[in-house]
Design a protein that fits this description.
The chain is mainly β and about 150 residues long. Helices cover about 5% and strands about 55% of the residues. It is globular.
Length: about 150
């Protein structure tokens, strides 16, 4: 299993814990900013090395629906726009509630508040998103880890 991250990305989240149906999530990653932690391996993760002519260097995810899953998490239906194909995906999303750090805590940068989201979904890279390669599996697991910090 290969893990990594993207160094160039953006995300916008409007999260309403009490009314999850009012929540939204959108974001993108620049595919060529892949970072596996092994510089010699990063170039091998670019779509061009799979014999793919990249239609777009950006993958986008936009939520369509948030639902409480009854177990403390959320099911998010979102549209993934990747390699010129748009498909709906279903993501399990978990929320780490806001924690406040005040100036008296002695923590650098306080006061601030921080919250987090973790999520995971799967795609079929070959059969659904037209990646023509024997270098990757069809089933790809995508994980989202985001921490949001705001002053005060």
């Amino acid at each position: 299993m290969l893990t990594g991250r993207f160094n160039t990305f953006s995300a916008k989240v409007e999260f309403d814990e009490d009314n999850p149906e009012n929540s939204t999530l959108s974001g993108f990653v620049v595919l060529s900013s892949v970072n596996t932690g092994e510089p010699g391996r990063d170039a091998g993760c670019l779509l061009g090395t799979f014999g793919v002519t990249t239609i777009s260097d950006t993958a986008r995810l936009t939520s369509k629906k948030f639902e409480f899953d009854g177990k403390g998490g959320y099911i998010v239906t979102a549209e993934l726009d990747f390699h010129g194909v748009k498909k709906d995906v279903s993501m399990q999303l978990n929320y780490t509630p806001m924690t406040h750090f005040d100036a008296a805590s002695g923590i650098s940068g306080a006061p601030y508040a921080v919250a987090g989201l973790t999520g995971q979904f799967e795609i079929n890279a070959i059969s659904d998103f037209l990646i023509d390669s024997h270098n990757i599996a069809d089933r790809v697991v995508i994980k989202l880890n985001a921490q949001f910090k705001k002053p005060g």
